[in-house]
Amino acid sequence: MSRSRTPVEHRTTRSHTRREARIKAILWDNDGVLCDTERLFFEANRSVLGPLGIALTREQYVAWYLEGNHGAWHVLRERGYDEARIAQVRVARDDAYSRLVSTSSSLCFPGVEQILARLAQRVSMSIVTASFDEHITLAHRANTVLEHIDHIVARTDRLRPKPHPDAYLYAMDKLGLHPDECIAVEDSPRGLAAARASGLRCIVLRTELLAGHAFMGAYRVVDSHRELEIELDALLENDSTLTSHTSYP
């Protein structure tokens, strides 16, 4: 399903300012890459699973949510919960996450707004995420990130989730581009798997939760947004003059 967005209209009016580049689009994961919301999703899951007798650990969260995509629902099934009850727990989790995001401020990582504002002059950009639209809007309500985004592919689109390639394939289709014209930016093993399955090169931003993960098959693995910016600049240079990097506080 295609959704019209104000940022798309805004971007169209200045598309002529972009210079030609071999890489024509950057496809961004959202949680853990653009905004510091992965920790909130972890806490939302803990808050609803705890009363049910599941003390979700960081290691379990990584294995069940970031490496795999089955969540803790298999544990509930093993304990006799039917699908209707599990669906209720999912809704409670999503509501808890909404509350955490709506009551948190400054979720955007430092420097991200400036990076996107500068890159938007050169390439198209999409967000490719498993989050709902409402959570993306909440997370970015106090920043300018969405002003620079052409398309958002979210859970609302009802595609198979990462590590399946569907969301990335859909994003490229909406942009009218091929995998060799795009680069993905991810922070999780299943996100990397989805990008690779769709034919994309993928830069991985290493986070605290996955500090020791090898991320085999990544185009690059970086440890900060500054390093990420440098790698993206190198890809976009295309034999042109180096541009200045964002100043960080």
UniProtKB/TrEMBL annotation:
<dbReference type="Pfam" id="PF00702">
    <property type="entry name" value="Hydrolase"/>
</dbReference>
<dbReference type="InterPro" id="IPR006439">
    <property type="entry name" value="HAD-SF_hydro_IA"/>
</dbReference>
<dbReference type="InterPro" id="IPR023214">
    <property type="entry name" value="HAD_sf"/>
</dbReference>
<dbReference type="InterPro" id="IPR023198">
    <property type="entry name" value="PGP-like_dom2"/>
</dbReference>
<dbReference type="InterPro" id="IPR036412">
    <property type="entry name" value="HAD-like_sf"/>
</dbReference>
<protein>
    <submittedName>
        <fullName>HAD family phosphatase</fullName>
    </submittedName>
</protein>
